[in-house]
Amino acid sequence: MQGQKQFHDKVSTHFRLSERVPTQNLYRRLRDRVNWDFLRLQIRPVYSHTGQPSLDPVVFFKLVLVGRLENILSDRRLIEQCAPRLDILYFLGYEVDEELPWHSTISRTRQLYPAAVFEHLFDHVFAQCVAADTQVVDSAPVKAAASLDSLREKPASAVPPLRVADEQVDPAPAVAVRSAPAHQLRREVTRRAKRQAAPGGLGARHPKAQLLSNKTHYSPTDPEARISVKPGKARALNYLCSVAVDTARGSISHIQADFGDRRDSTHLPELVPRLQTRLVANELTLRDFVADTGYSNGFNYAFLEQRAITPWIPVFGHYKPAPEGFSYEAAVDAFRCPAGKSLPFRNYATSQDGNWVKNYRAAYQDCQQCPLKMRCTPAAPQQKFVRSAFDAAYRRAWHRQQSRAVQRMRRVRQRTVEPVFGSLLQHYGLRRVGTKSRAAAHKTMLLSAIAYNLKKLLKHRPTQCLSLAVALPKPPPPPGALPLQRRTRRYYRKCQPAKHEDNGKSRVLQQPRPSTTCKSLVRSDKVGYLVPNVGSMLRAG
């Protein structure tokens, strides 16, 4: 007979939440593995000793980490997903009939807590992960909570309005102004004019078309978000996420939020000291620094070498240790031209962008009397070179790039940091920053990194010792025992087959096996000696 299940929605009086969550569940293992009590001590200075009790800091951090582990960006949707999950309720410490916090409470609490508390939790989790002395660094843009439609043009200058003395005036909201240098603004105007004058430009002559730049536009929704674009991706308001990953277990050792309109190389001097401080606190040493060409900079090379770190960063493709036909003499810091004349170092200078450079210039008389002047420098009265002030560090990096070790480091970078970025953007809620301001974006990135390291922490299993060998002293031989080597040679000499010579060819003759009486004359004591069998010898005699 076919059966049919009947369901009666009855009240269960005998129910324990811990019995319904398996021991191998992710959130149960996190509850048992990580100690969360230190967060209450970190947050205590933020609150007053009076008033209504706030949301438990441990519950808040567990909730936001659940959102990263479940790839949920919305606080409202996070509460909806956590309510029917028994394992999450057990992880948070809530009963089945207990209401979860309101979603707006999570948003206000996130704004209240400083970024130092998030970094302390990151350090607490990272200290339990395995790290190495080689760190791989990379960056990627993360979408901000602002649209390009919200962009407004920056005013030319911010002149404070006149007001009567001793008059109370409400402070006006901060407005971004054009703070870029004059030469950059002129370059931007020239670029716009060429773009509009170019024939066939897509949308260039449209009445609503506008050329957007961080030097002339800003977003009132999130003034710290920057316009950035990468090859193959649409232009958007982004933040830049810089990540350092260790090569031992692939755990994240550092993460930070930066402005999206700057080059990767400008963030390295700020990233390395923080990374070194964290590694030193865990008794680790940073020896090798691996990154892509975006971090190539003369100052970065010298900065890392000064800290006893080997920079495995490829130089730009157009860099050359010396101009074609010229040779560099490091002893005198000068270049030698094809005619044999010297171009010595003259002075230091700064470029328009503020970078330090070195000027090398030949003597006026040498170039004027040189027969190769029309081929070397036909327009200028003398030859001169402008090199970076850190050209020596550049040259060492270029020679390092010619070795085979740099190819191995390139493969290490590809298999280490790039999968981490793919996981953070697609599975840990970092495809978009749901908060405003750089500090809030930094908190969001820290939470994603903490969730990633927690997964790594649970997957890591320390190496167990399956077997142990101990060298023990050899016991003394029993009385009357003969050495095994001597008796064995004598025994096998008797049992070895004999050879017979027949017409110059060797032939082995079959011999009978030794008799049982011969075998029984000797027995082994399993220690490395042969003991004569006295009883068998008497019977054989």
Automatic annotation (TrEMBL):
Name listed for the protein in its UniProt record: Transposase
Domain of life of the organism encoding this protein: Bacteria
